[in-house]
Amino acid sequence: MRVKLVQVISHITGWVFFFSLIFIFLSNTPSGQAGFTQRLFSAPFLIFSLTYIILFYLNNYLLVPRLYLPKKYLLYSGSLIALFFIVYTISPFDGLMRQRQGMQQNFMPGMPLPMDPGHKPPPGEGNEKFPPPGGNRPPMGQPRKNTDINSIILFITVIAISTAIPVIKQWRVTEKRALLAEAQKATAELYMLKSQVNPHFLFNTLNNIYSLAVTHSPHTASSIMKLSKMMRYLTDEVGEDFVSLDDELECIHDFIDLQKLRISNTDVDFTVNGDTATRQIAPLLLMTFVENAFKYGISSHSHSFIRIVLTITAGKLEFYCSNKIHAGKTKTLPDREGTGIANVKQRLQLLYPGKHQLMINTADNNFIVQLIIQLS
Fold first, then answer.
1. Could you tell me the pTM of the whole model?
2. Buried-most residue among 10, 95, 116, 213 (CB within 10 A)?
């Protein structure tokens, strides 16, 4: 409310200053203050005022937000050209000048007062004081109207100011969003390090790898390599704003393989469809849902399943993750949507505003996450 009030006051102050300059210019006539009201409510001044007020707000609230900022430059340029020709045709400043010249003539020093129609001027005076009608007309072939350069200058000024205001506002919003995204990313990194790469996770993983080594399992070396790559990704590469989608998926693969070392009665289905080679994504967005599925979707007492599907089609990423809800595990959505998912929601709002859909629900005793992101 306070911001809106400040904007209204700023706009009113700006227009008062603008029209005050015009009045000061028009007041430079012999009529002085006598014609103030006449000028204020005159047709030329009303046309002048409405022309530039409408031009300002039309560009500020319609053309720039809907054409310029969405990068529809051709339509935006065409609209400005059309507005330019309208202003050039109306020539609002030229109308004010004609009004000013008319008032100067009406109050010219020494000019006699208007006479009765039947009164004849003294011999030798009428022709000198009042030239015959049409005596000052330009000769045939000479242009009657000069270019109203002042209206054009005011047009450029109003367009520039009304364009700069929303562009600067959008730039500030983008900058603020980037700062918030950076803060949220740092929070996400800390959360991931605490929730996934914590001593408990490392202890279980290393203990499983130790068991593989004791039994001389051929999977020992590959498990150590996967843990090493995952640690490197979570501590180094997630410092970037966007990472390769293949790197993110490789980290998820390694995480799932390491989790399989400690589970025996859980089926895990991880499927990737489409071309992921050239795609990028904000780091750790998908990992949170995968980690959540293993945290709540497995049980040592009953059979479990986790299904993860990622599909890339026409610049769109579709992620699906579901797991069975077990007795004794957290079932309600508010409880399942803890710090990790809340953080992901905030990052999605900052990094993909208007370009994502996140749906989290339960159906048939399954916890389901569906995420759609429009990739650039």
1. 0.50
2. 95
